[in-house]
Structure formats: structure tokens, C-alpha cells
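C-alpha cells for chain A. Residues wanted.
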């Protein structure tokens, strides 16, 4: 399975030779290009070099056991062989991890959309709970959050909220949050004490720029209107709200939270690009599902992924059948206990897909 790694080591050694040549040393562009390429593959090359060395040491040490040696020396050789085999096992595991194809979007910032589902006002309050949960999770990872668009209810909930999470690796962690979240609790508006079940959907999309998703002006319908709801001076008195409709796909994005029409248009464009990109990615995933369907990273958006049960102080992630009885802890942003396991399963599935 390490045939590809042999080529990586060969290229690393070739780059070492090139970087020491006078021609490359005098060319800043080539020096930068080759230096970056070597840096990118250095860890894999060094691990494979160590792997080869340990394989050779195991062969030599095993040969010593077949010769006539006294018991004391044999015991030392067997101990050394056991240590080498442990090192080989660790190097094999590390190289296997490096061979797993990584999602090229993992390092990106994200746009998160949370929408209240079934449950009326209670669903909107739950959407607000999820939003605050992600704010705290982002803070723990030193990511920055900014609201792009929101539709508040009168009692502190959100019918919809769209926000940006900026920080390296945000998509690699938050992508596992896409799906339907369900809450079971007695709503504050309930007088008889009955437990209600409500839902909210979460969509996590990698942030993209205008180079990756080109949107022609001729493909857009732009509507401006007066903002509704809360806002600062000027927000509700001018036609500052913007609604963008992408005519080829029918995708709509709107924003009214900013005072200027220009700012709202820019934010709506960010949302629109992310949605168009996400639609194309989902199409690609659908085409690949016949050969490889990941139970984690390719889960259906309509699938119920997690339940927050207040009476039992329990949160259950249905994808990994994991329940924890620290609901307040989870709502305070402690999500790694779920995300770590989901990422581990995803990694294992990617490894299985690597040609042996």
C-alpha cells in the first residue's frame, strides 16, 4: 500500500538535489516553488525513510535469532525485535493516516444556517439555543463569528439565522453539525407542563470566493426593499434590504441587517456563493454515493442527527449512538466529545477507500 509513498520519497530526494543546484539557488521563483513542494511532502518522506530503516533492522535482528547464541543474548535480541515491531506498527499507522485523502475544504471558514422547524415559537427558541452553543464552541477554538442575516421572533428566538465562522479548520469540525437537531422539553409557553418535541435544521457550508463560484450579473435578479424588524437608525427607513435570486438555480439569498444597501448586497452575495457551491458539492456526492456512502460526512440534510432531552438531562447523537448526561455542558459548547468520534469514523472510512 506504500507504493505511492515510495514516489514521494523519490521526489523529496530529487527536490533536495534541485535546491542545492546553482541554477535554482539563483532563481527566487524556482527556489520558492521547490522549497514549498519539499516542505509539503517532508513529513511523509521522513516517516517512510524511517519505515524502511526499521524494516531493514527487523530483518537483520531476525537473522541474529537463527544463529547460535546463548540464552542471555537471545533474550536481548528478542527484546530489541519487540521494540522494533512496535516502532514499525506506529510508523505504518502514521503513514496510513497520511495516505487518507483529505477534504480540501477542511481548512476553510464556514457559513452556518440555522432554521426553526416544527414546533412554532419553541422551535425558534431552540434555534437560538443552537446558535449560542456554536458561538461558545467557536470561542473555545478562537474562531470569530459574525451574523450575516437573521429573522428574530418577539421572545428571543430565531426563525432563521445565518452567520459566518472565520478561522482555520472551522469546516473540518463544524461540517459534522449539518442535519436536523431535535429538542424534547417543556416550553416556557406551556402551562400544563407537557413535554413538546421541536426541531431545527443546521446547514454548514464552506466559505467560497468569487473565483471559485462565478456569478454573472445577467444571472441575477436583485430586489431592494425596506428592512423589517429590529435595527439601528436608518435600517427601517430606507430601501437597504437586498434579495438576490440566482435565476439558473432558483437559489435566493437576502440580507437586511446592515444599514447600507451595499453592505447587505455583499453579505447576500457571500451567502449565495456558498449555497451555489454547496448545491454543486451535493450533486457530486450524490453521483459518488453508488460506490461509497459515508455515514458521517455524506449524511442526508433531512436526517435527524442529535436529540437534546431536557427531562433526562441527555444529549444523544444518533449517528454514533452516543449519549451523554450533561446537557447544559453540551449547550455551553462542549461538542468535541461528539465531533472527535465522528471525525474518527470519517477518517477510518477514508482509509478503507485507499487502494491497498
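Reply:
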Amino acid at each position: 500500500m506504500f507504493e505511492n509513498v515510495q514516489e514521494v520519497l523519490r521526489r523529496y530526494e530529487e527536490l533536495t538535489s534541485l535546491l542545492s543546484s546553482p541554477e535554482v539557488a539563483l532563481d527566487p521563483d524556482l527556489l520558492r516553488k521547490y522549497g514549498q513542494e519539499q516542505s509539503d511532502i517532508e513529513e511523509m518522506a521522513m516517516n517512510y525513510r524511517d519505515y524502511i530503516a526499521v524494516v531493514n533492522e527487523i530483518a537483520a535482528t531476525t537473522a541474529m535469532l537463527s544463529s547460535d547464541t546463548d540464552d542471555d543474548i537471545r533474550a536481548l535480541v528478542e527484546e530489541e525485535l519487540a521494540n522494533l515491531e512496535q516502532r514499525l506498527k506506529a510508523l505504518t499507522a502514521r503513514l496510513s493516516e497520511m495516505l487518507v485523502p483529505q477534504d480540501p475544504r477542511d481548512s476553510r471558514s464556514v457559513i452556518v444556517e440555522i432554521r426553526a422547524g416544527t414546533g412554532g415559537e419553541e422551535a425558534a427558541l431552540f434555534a437560538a439555543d443552537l446558535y449560542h452553543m456554536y458561538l461558545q464552541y467557536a470561542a473555545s477554538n478562537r474562531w470569530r463569528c459574525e451574523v450575516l442575516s437573521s429573522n428574530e421572533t418577539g421572545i428571543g428566538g430565531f426563525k432563521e439565522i445565518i452567520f459566518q465562522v472565520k478561522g482555520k479548520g472551522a469546516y473540518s469540525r463544524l461540517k459534522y453539525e449539518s442535519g436536523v437537531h431535535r429538542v424534547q422539553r417543556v416550553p416556557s409557553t406551556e402551562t400544563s407542563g407537557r413535554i413538546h418535541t421541536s426541531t431545527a435544521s443546521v446547514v454548514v457550508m464552506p466559505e467560497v470566493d468569487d473565483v471559485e463560484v462565478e456569478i454573472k450579473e445577467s444571472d441575477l435578479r436583485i430586489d431592494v426593499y425596506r428592512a423589517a424588524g429590529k435595527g439601528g437608525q436608518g435600517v427601517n427607513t430606507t430601501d437597504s434590504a437586498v434579495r438576490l435570486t440566482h435565476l439558473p438555480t432558483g437559489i435566493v439569498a437576502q440580507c437586511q441587517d446592515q444599514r447600507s444597501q451595499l453592505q447587505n448586497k455583499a453579505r447576500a452575495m457571500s451567502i449565495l456563493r456558498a449555497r451555489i457551491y454547496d448545491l454543486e458539492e451535493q450533486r457530486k456526492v450524490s453521483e459518488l454515493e453508488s460506490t461509497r456512502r459515508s455515514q458521517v460526512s455524506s449524511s442526508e440534510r433531512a436526517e435527524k442527527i442529535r436529540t437534546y432531552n431536557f427531562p433526562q438531562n441527555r444529549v444523544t447523537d444518533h449517528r454514533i449512538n452516543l449519549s451523554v448526561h450533561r446537557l447544559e455542558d453540551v449547550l455551553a459548547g462542549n461538542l468535541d466529545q461528539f465531533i472527535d468520534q465522528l471525525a474518527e469514523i470519517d477518517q477510518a472510512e477514508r482509509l478503507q477507500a485507499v487502494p491497498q
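Residues 231-235, 288-301 have pLDDT under 50 and may be disordered. DSSP finds nine helices and eleven strands in the chain.
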